[in-house]
Write a structure and sequence with these properties.
six-stranded antiparallel beta sheet, 7 helices, alpha+beta, single chain, 252 residues
Length: 252
């Protein structure tokens, strides 16, 4: 189970860990199936000291003990949960953000994302934090402020499609380069994720490069911030070049 999950969502876990401190895969029984943490050397660290333990019974980890109640609520309601808390640590006050996400095809599991922000304000699009995000795995990262429509793209993203920084800066700019036959698919899956029906947005689509040609990509994303009444604020994800795989498929 863990190996299958990791293979499918490894890129998204890597993306989540660019801002989160921990990402956990938790079973309905509250057993921690997988625990990923930031690791400067390898990008993702599977924490064996956490995996296999009961979420509410990890010694001296009050954050995970609190998450146990949220996971129970998520399984009961079937909803994606988002909670913010002001806590005080040794270095001072921080904003603790906990998200419990549904997982496609794995109804008996939930993903818990834990983030700490060192100042008590809303998390904006922080471009310097994302400049090198996911470049090591060959994916281009995007970051959308849903309220303003502003989008940020990583250096790798510009490299994949050939655009210069500043050429595409809004959601409207991005959608204008979609293949006309794929626009409806993107819109439907985007709305489905925004409404909480799908835990993640995923679509294989054709996207226009700077040179004018279309390239097949795997587009994936997840909501990482909401208002108190549940309206999406920030949406991040990746674009993976799958042109060669699609060309091979079309041969048969």
């Amino acid at each position: 189970m863990l190996e299958s999950y990791s293979a499918i969502y490894e890129t998204m876990v890597k993306a989540l860990l660019q801002f989160a401190d921990r990402v956990l895969l938790v079973a309905k029984t509250k057993v921690i199936v997988g625990c990923w943490e930031k690791d400067d050397a390898n990008g993702i660290l599977v924490n064996s000291t956490c995996s296999g333990l009961d979420l509410g019974g990890v010694p001296e980890d009050h954050i995970l003990q609190f998450c146990a109640g949220l996971v129970s609520e998520a399984f009961t309601t079937g909803k994606v949960l988002y909670r913010e808390f002001a806590v005080v640590e040794e270095k001072g006050p921080v904003l603790l953000i906990i998200r419990v996400l549904n997982i496609p095809d794995y109804r008996e599991h939930r993903m818990v994302v834990i983030e700490k922000i060192n100042r008590l304000d809303n998390a904006p699009i922080v471009e310097d934090k994302w400049k090198l995000a996911l470049d090591a795995v060959g994916d281009g990262m995007w970051d959308l402020d849903i309220t303003t429509g502003k989008m940020f793209f990583s250096e790798k993203w510009h490299e994949i499609f050939g655009y210069l920084p500043g050429e595409l800066v809004t959601l409207e700019d991005w959608t204008s380069k979609l293949h006309p036959d794929d626009y409806k698919k993107v819109e439907e899956r985007f709305v489905s994720h925004m409404n909480g029906k799908d835990a993640m947005y995923t679509a294989e689509i054709r996207y226009m490069c700077k040179a004018g040609n279309y390239k097949w990509i795997l587009s994936r994303g997840v909501i990482i911030s909401k208002t108190e009444d549940g309206k999406p604020l920030r949406f991040i994800g990746t674009h993976t070049d799958i042109q060669k795989r699609r060309q091979e498929q079309e041969k048969y």
